[in-house]
């Protein structure tokens, strides 16, 4: 049987943060899967920067951008009657025609992509990171200007039509099955893994870390929150908690990094209102290669995000031995490897930070983080094996069909 040729779409830009790092992890393990299973992967991205990054890992990616005709197809696809026209005329978008010319058998979207709407002939795999537009529809980033409706179309049609749906937690299997009637047999759960830039950094000598901290004029023992500045990232609760701690005579330093997605202005205003300018450092977007040093320099990762059920930063913190403070809503991911708090309650978060500073807590959390990371690594291996089994079945079925 000839090798299966799998297109792997790496569509997120580097500035997206975890939305880029996790698909990058996927590309790396899919490369290993293809080599072991006598299959092939072809990596595509619309960003030249991503091509350059992949070269560092020995992967040659092809540039595949959206053209105006693709956008026209996509617009018409949102209009239901166009499906009948496409069916009758057997129209294919330029995007799909390019993949067919490359001999692609299956298209693997490593994020929840709108491009699956352009596929008329090729079967596809879709990845769904979360269902947060349903979990927390009050946030404008998942509600305003048709974003909620757009996600419903992508999640609903994508998950029902995909030959395989990849998720990162069992909770998402339950949610998709309940919300969109997706068959469980077509879903595979593969937990997140730490960014390759963090996990491969290991126990880098302190001199290299010191250089990064010196660059940003940081002293060790700060609280660290790497997150884009969206409202759902909940920076304001963290700032309120710091203000309450200071009222108790406790001064904690905070380091934030990430791209501005419309929430930075309100955060700057809150820092000024609380009088926290001397305690808070905002780095903006930082290079991936610097993340490990920033994690290691921290007393803890503090992540009050409303969106889950899983997130990448706790894994990265555990990978370098940094304690984690995390919402109790996501206890299923954290287990006993984090101090948990109520993300709607600044006092709860302030108390969690106080707990961090009690004797023996940091050491306990480091050991628990190591164990939790090992557990998740075992679950990841099982999920990847399940993926391989599903792909073997799909490969057999596609061999029965005309090309």
UniProtKB/TrEMBL annotation:
It holds the Pfam family Glyco_trans_1_4. PANTHER family: BLL6006 PROTEIN, GLYCOSYLTRANSFERASE WBBK-RELATED. This is Glycosyltransferase involved in cell wall biosynthesis. It comes from Bradyrhizobium ottawaense. The lineage of its organism: Bacteria, Pseudomonadati, Pseudomonadota, Alphaproteobacteria, Hyphomicrobiales.
């Amino acid at each position: 049987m000839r090798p299966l040729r799998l297109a792997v779409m790496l569509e997120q830009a580097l500035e997206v943060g975890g939305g880029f790092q996790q698909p990058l992890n996927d590309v790396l393990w899919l490369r290993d899967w293809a080599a072991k299973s006598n299959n092939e992967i072809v990596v595509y991205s619309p960003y030249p920067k991503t091509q350059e990054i992949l070269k560092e890992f020995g992967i040659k990616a092809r540039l595949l951008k959206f053209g105006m005709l693709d956008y026209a197809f996509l617009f018409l696809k949102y209009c239901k009657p166009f499906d009948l026209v496409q069916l009758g005329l057997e129209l294919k978008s330029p995007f799909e025609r390019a993949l067919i010319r490359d001999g692609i058998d299956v298209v693997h979207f490593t994020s929840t992509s709108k491009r699956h709407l352009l596929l008329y002939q090729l079967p596809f795999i879709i990845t769904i990171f979360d269902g947060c537009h349903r979990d927390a529809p009050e946030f404008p980033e998942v509600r305003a200007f048709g974003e909620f409706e757009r996600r419903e179309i992508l999640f609903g049609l994508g998950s029902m039509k995909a030959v395989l749906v990849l998720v990162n937690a069992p909770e998402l299997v339950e949610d998709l099955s309940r919300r969109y009637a997706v068959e469980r047999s077509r879903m595979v759960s593969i937990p997140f893994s730490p960014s390759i830039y963090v996990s491969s950094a290991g126990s880098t000598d302190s001199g290299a870390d010191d250089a990064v901290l010196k660059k940003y004029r940081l002293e060790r023992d700060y609280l660290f929150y790497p997150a884009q500045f969206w409202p759902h990232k909940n920076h304001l609760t963290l700032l309120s908690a710091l203000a309450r701690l200071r009222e108790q005579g406790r001064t904690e330093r905070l380091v934030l990094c990430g791209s501005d997605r419309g929430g930075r202005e309100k955060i700057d205003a809150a820092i000024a209102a609380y009088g926290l300018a001397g305690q808070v450092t905002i780095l903006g977007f930082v290079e991936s290669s610097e993340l490990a040093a920033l994690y290691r320099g921290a007393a803890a990762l503090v992540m009050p995000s409303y969106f889950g059920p899983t997130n990448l930063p706790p894994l990265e913190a555990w990978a370098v031995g940094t304690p984690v403070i995390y919402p109790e809503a996501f206890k299923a991911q954290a287990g006993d490897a984090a101090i948990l708090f109520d993300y709607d309650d600044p006092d709860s978060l302030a108390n969690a930070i106080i707990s961090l500073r009690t004797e023996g807590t940091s050491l306990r959390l480091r050991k628990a983080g190591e164990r939790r990371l090992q557990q998740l690594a075992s679950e990841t291996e099982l999920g990847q094996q399940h993926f391989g089994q599903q792909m073997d079945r799909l490969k057999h079925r596609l061999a029965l069909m005309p090309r």
